[in-house]
Structure formats: structure tokens, C-alpha cells
């Protein structure tokens, strides 16, 4: 057991009960055996922004909801982001709750596997990247990087390997605009076949908007959103999936939640629900 660092987060037992029905079952079971339990979770402003502008990191969660997010991290096998988030945030993507591995607990107990979607290997990670610093300190796992590149550079392969990570190569089609569109069904099935029973998808904007498209929204088991009492203003990274139309061509809402529950956490509120199909 390692000593818990002074910055370890606390998420009180009294706050855990409400979340339990929203979380992956502790026995690892899923409604679809070939798919992981999939949670979409992020923090947003009142004007649906994840960050002040593309390429910047913006703290939205207050201390209590941040601790909740880390509790979610402790309850999922994997935590997934897009390359835009990796570039903007240099994230840690570990769990910093008191009592988990590296924070007073054994080994890497309850540390999720970071997964980065990086179709063309834009993320120029190095030993100095936050994720790898945490690996060296025994406080996080090496990432899996999902890419279209079938032969990634040898030095990146060995760097990842050194930290227990890997590249996962998938065929990801390129759209007319030059960006890539992962097939979420294929990706999630691949993560399941690599042993992950649960995955939380944190963002950023492109990833969330894509996952909320009609083709993919049925893959989401739960949505857990922290809403912070602030407007970030125009120009932010916005969660706003493409508009949908009914059979007569009338516009309708892009997606809606059912079985909704709200919980206040300090100045924030946390919204939990299931996507209404
Ligand atoms: N408040 C919060 O909770 C969170 C905030 N953020 C913030 O979000 C911002 C980053 O968001 P954003 O710039 O939108 O980048 P993303 O993290 O959403 O990454 C987008 C990139 O992922 C790749 N990709 C592959 N397949 C898909 C697909 N099907 N759908 C979407 N992307 C795909 C593309 O790479 P390529 O272009 O190479 O093809 C795309 O450009 C940062 O500022 C970060 O701080 C992020 C997470 C949570
Ligand atoms: N829950 C939450 N609240 C915020 O205010 C945020 N900005 C984010 N961002 C997500 O968390 C990642 C950073 O994680 P580390 O603290 O570096 O481990 C970031 O990359 C986003 O995915 N989340």
C-alpha cells in the first residue's frame, strides 16, 4: 500500500448511494455481452460549453462534483477522450480518490485505462506527458491509442509499451472535410474484446456530438452530466449534436433523456439519465 498524497480526493460514502443505480454492475455484467457498459459523462456550462475555446482547458466542476467524476473513474475499466482533448489538456486521466491504487491503495487498483482516439497520430506524446508521469509514479495506466495508422512510428510504439500501453489500429473512414468518423459500435466492441467491461467517455465536443447521433446513441447506457453555474460565452467548445428531422421534414430535438435524476453537489448539479431511443 502506498501513502495517499495530500492532494487525494474524498468522495463521501453518503454521496455514493444515489450514483449506484447509474454505474456499471460490480460483477462486470452488461446487457450486451459483446459491448462494454458505456457512460457518457462531462462537465458543461449553462450555455453547453465544455471549454472557453478549442485548444484550452477550462475547469468547470467544483470540488464536490470533481470528486464525483473521480469516483466514476474508479468504477469504470476505461476512460475515453478524443485527440482534441489530449492536445488541449495534456490530461492525467487517472483516478485520484483516496484509497485507490497509487493514492493509498494496492498497485493500480481501480485505475481506469486511458483511451485516446487519434486517427492520424496528431498527439505527439512524450515521457513528459502528464499521463506518463503518472505511470512512472504508479498512479495511472499506460494509454491505448486508437488510430487508422497501421504502422505507427517505432519510437512511439516502444514508449507506449514501456508504460503498458498500446496502439489499436482500426479502419476509420475520412470524411469530405478531412476529419475521421469512428464507428462507435466497432470501437466499443474492440475495447470489450480487449477486456474492458465498462468505459466512460469524457469528450470533447466532437466526440460527444458524434456519439449522440441517431446511429450511435443507443450504445450509451448512462449519461452523467455536471452542470456548472456559469456561462462561458460564445466561442466555446459546445455540446450540440446535429439537428434531426421527422418523416415530414420538421425539425425535432437531437436527443432526449429519460429516467432523469438530479443531484446538487456544492454549487453544481449532476444530471443522470438514459438516452430515450
Ligand atoms: N468539460 C469537460 O468535461 C470536458 C472538456 N473537454 C474539452 O473539449 C475540448 C476538446 O474538444 P474537441 O476539440 O471537440 O476535440 P475531441 O476531444 O472531441 O477530439 C476530436 C477529434 O477526435 C477524432 N475523431 C475520430 N473519430 C471521431 C468521431 N466519430 N467523432 C469525433 N471525433 C472523432 C478526430 O480527429 P482528427 O481531426 O485527427 O480526425 C477529431 O478531430 C478541449 O478544450 C477540452 O478541454 C474535453 C473533455 C471533457
Ligand atoms: N468532470 C470534468 N470537469 C471539468 O471541469 C473538466 N474540465 C473536465 N475535463 C475532463 O477531465 C480531463 C482532465 O482530467 P485530469 O484532471 O487531467 O485527470 C480532461 O481531459 C477532460 O476529459 N472534466
From TrEMBL:
Keyword 4Fe-4S: no
Pathway(s) served: Cofactor biosynthesis; riboflavin biosynthesis
Region (Disordered): 1-36
Catalysed reaction, written as an equation: 2,5-diamino-6-(1-D-ribitylamino)pyrimidin-4(3H)-one 5'-phosphate + NAD(+) = 2,5-diamino-6-(1-D-ribosylamino)pyrimidin-4(3H)-one 5'-phosphate + NADH + H(+); 2,5-diamino-6-(1-D-ribitylamino)pyrimidin-4(3H)-one 5'-phosphate + NADP(+) = 2,5-diamino-6-(1-D-ribosylamino)pyrimidin-4(3H)-one 5'-phosphate + NADPH + H(+)
Compositional bias per record (Basic and acidic residues), positions renumbered to this chain: 7-18
GO MF terms, alphabetically ordered: 5-amino-6-(5-phosphoribosylamino)uracil reductase activity
Gene3D superfamilies linked to this entry: Dihydrofolate Reductase, subunit A (3.40.430.10)
GO terms under biological process: riboflavin biosynthetic process
Keyword Oxidoreductase among UniProt keywords: yes
Keywords: NADP, Oxidoreductase, Riboflavin biosynthesis
The EC number(s) this enzyme carries: 1.1.1.302
Segments forming domain Bacterial bifunctional deaminase-reductase C-terminal: 36-271
Tree of life domain: Eukaryota
Pfam families found in the cross-reference section: RibD_C (PF01872)
Role of this protein: Catalyzes an early step in riboflavin biosynthesis, the NADPH-dependent reduction of the ribose side chain of 2,5-diamino-6-ribosylamino-4(3H)-pyrimidinone 5'-phosphate, yielding 2,5-diamino-6-ribitylamino-4(3H)-pyrimidinone 5'-phosphate.
PANTHER family with a match to the protein in the record: 2,5-DIAMINO-6-RIBOSYLAMINO-4(3H)-PYRIMIDINONE 5'-PHOSPHATE REDUCTASE, DIHYDROFOLATE REDUCTASE FAMILY PROTEIN (AFU_ORTHOLOGUE AFUA_8G06820)
Family stated for the protein in its record: Belongs to the HTP reductase family.
Protein name from the UniProt record: 2,5-diamino-6-ribosylamino-4(3H)-pyrimidinone 5'-phosphate reductase
Organism (species): Penicillium daleae
Amino acid at each position: 500500500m502506498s501513502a495517499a498524497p495530500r492532494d487525494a480526493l474524498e468522495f463521501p460514502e453518503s454521496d455514493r448511494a444515489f450514483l449506484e443505480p447509474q454505474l456499471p454492475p460490480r460483477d462486470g455484467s452488461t446487457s450486451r455481452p459483446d459491448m462494454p457498459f458505456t457512460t457518457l459523462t462531462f462537465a458543461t456550462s449553462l450555455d453547453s460549453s465544455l471549454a472557453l475555446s478549442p485548444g484550452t482547458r477550462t475547469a468547470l466542476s467544483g470540488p464536490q462534483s470533481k470528486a464525483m467524476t473521480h469516483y466514476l473513474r474508479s468504477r469504470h475499466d476505461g476512460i475515453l477522450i478524443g485527440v482534441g482533448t489530449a492536445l488541449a489538456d495534456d490530461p492525467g486521466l487517472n483516478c485520484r480518490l483516496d484509497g485507490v491504487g497509487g493514492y493509498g491503495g494496492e498497485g493500480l487498483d481501480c485505475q481506469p485505462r486511458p483511451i485516446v482516439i487519434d486517427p492520424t497520430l496528431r498527439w505527439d506524446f512524450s515521457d513528459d506527458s502528464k499521463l506518463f508521469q503518472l505511470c512512472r509514479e504508479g498512479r495511472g495506466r499506460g494509454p491505448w491509442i486508437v488510430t487508422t495508422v497501421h504502422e505507427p512510428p517505432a519510437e512511439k510504439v516502444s514508449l507506449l509499451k514501456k508504460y503498458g500501453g498500446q496502439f489499436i489500429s482500426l479502419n476509420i473512414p475520412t470524411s469530405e472535410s478531412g476529419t475521421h468518423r469512428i464507428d462507435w459500435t466497432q470501437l466499443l466492441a474492440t475495447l470489450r474484446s480487449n477486456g474492458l467491461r465498462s468505459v466512460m467517455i469524457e469528450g470533447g465536443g466532437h466526440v460527444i456530438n458524434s456519439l449522440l447521433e441517431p446511429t450511435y446513441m443507443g450504445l450509451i447506457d448512462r449519461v452523467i452530466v455536471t452542470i456548472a453555474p456559469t456561462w462561458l460565452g460564445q466561442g466555446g467548445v459546445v455540446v450540440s449534436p446535429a439537428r434531426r428531422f421527422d418523416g415530414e421534414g420538421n425539425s425535432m430535438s437531437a436527443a432526449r433523456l429519460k429516467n432523469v435524476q438530479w443531484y446538487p453537489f456544492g454549487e453544481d448539479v449532476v444530471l443522470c439519465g438514459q438516452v430515450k431511443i
